[in-house]
Amino acid sequence: MAVLGQLARRLGVSESWVRDRRCAADLALASLGDAQLVLLRPRRLMNANGRSVAQAAELFGLTAEDVYLVHDDLDKPLGKLALKLGGSARGHNGVRSCISCLNSSVSPPLCPALGRVVGRGALTLLTKAA
């Protein structure tokens, strides 16, 4: 959610989030060059957020190839970002839900690294200020 918030700020739509009950999510619409972007913050539990993603994709006429998933990856160094084209959920239940509901594994997940806090069970997320 922090990554989407930062993206919304940089696109100038951070105050434009609206709740959409049809897909059980908050949506913000933005332009980037010639592209129209739909930013989606599901309001479901992570393990069921694929339903929100699939319903929004249908609502906006998007295919699985048009969807970018932003999710955490504890196995990456803190502050790193990875773009992965397709593949498996690698044990991430939220990604698994999206793959299942979109009936495709072609969505390229965008994975900001949270990093593990050594010696504690807590997680840390760092974001750069705009």
Describe the fold and architecture.
The two termini are 16 Å apart. The protein has 130 residues and is α+β, with helices and mostly antiparallel strands. It has helices at 2-10, 49-59, 93-102; strands at residues 18-20, 25-32, 35-42, 69-70, 81-83, 109-112. A three-stranded antiparallel beta sheet has the order 1-2-3. A three-stranded mixed beta sheet has the order 4-6-5, with no helix packed on it. It is built from three helices and six strands; from the N terminus they run αβββαββαβ. Helix 2 (49-59) packs parallel to helix 3 (93-102). Strand 2 (25-32) and strand 3 form a beta hairpin. It has a single domain, classed as 3-Layer(aba) Sandwich (Rossmann fold), CATH 3.40.50.
Can you tell me the residue ranges where pLDDT is under 50 for at least 5 consecutive residues? 112-130
CATH class: Alpha Beta
| Number of H/I helices | 3
What topology, given as strand order, has the largest sheet?
Answer: 1-2-3
Radius of gyration: 15 Å
Ends: how far apart?
Answer: 16 Å
CATH fold topology: Rossmann fold
| The number of domains | 1
Name of the CATH homologous superfamily: Peptidyl-tRNA hydrolase
Report the CATH architecture: 3-Layer(aba) Sandwich
Question: What does the average pLDDT come to?
Answer: 74
Dominant shape = globular
Please count the beta strands (DSSP E, at least 2 residues each). Answer: 6
SSE-based structural type = alpha+beta
**Range of strand content:** 15-25%
Pfam family, one: Pept_tRNA_hydro
InterPro entries: Pept_tRNA_hydro, Pept_tRNA_hydro_CS, Pept_tRNA_hydro_sf
Family: Belongs to the PTH family.
EC number: 3.1.1.29
